[in-house]
Amino acid sequence: AGSGAGADMRTEISTAAAFVTRLLRAAGGVGEEQLRCFRECLQEAMREHYRHHWFPLVPSKGSGYRCIRINHKMDPLIGKAAEMIGLSHERLFQLLPSELTLWVDPFEVSYRIGEDGSICVLYESPQPGGKAAKQLESRTSCKEEWRIGRSSPSKSYNMMTVSS
């Protein structure tokens, strides 16, 4: 059973690694060859880290363990990949958002920038058995949210509004 898990999480891991790599590319100052190497190192680090913490039958199990987080501290997986291409943690903090949460779960990769930002889905695939179909319809992706306009946040985000 152990060997199958690795193949199953390939899409989720490559989606997450590509996203962090895009953030670095957008910030500028990191060469394409370095970015390619960073992405490969990050994917490898994630594969290793998630190996025994990937439960397609219970996608939310282990979610906290797989969560990649930058919040005044650099996520060790991102830090490790950056070290491989000679980027210091200080430099990473300049290049990446200071508040970033990336959830890498079976069938879904999503992220949030800022403590009270919207959660945006990067990758989503229906779970075998179709139980998730209902909840997927009700969720608005970030793209749709921008199209609708910020004036009408969808219901599913109300729980994240922070009252001052």
TrEMBL record:
Record's GO cellular component terms: cytoplasm; nucleus
Stretches assigned to the Anti-proliferative protein domain: 96-115
Matches recorded under InterPro entries: Anti_prolifrtn (IPR002087), BTG (IPR033332), BTG-like_sf (IPR036054)
Any one of the GO BP annotations: negative regulation of cell population proliferation
One Pfam family per UniProt: BTG
Domain of life: Eukaryota
Family membership: Belongs to the BTG family.
The protein's name in its UniProt record: BTG1 protein
Species annotation: Cardinalis cardinalis
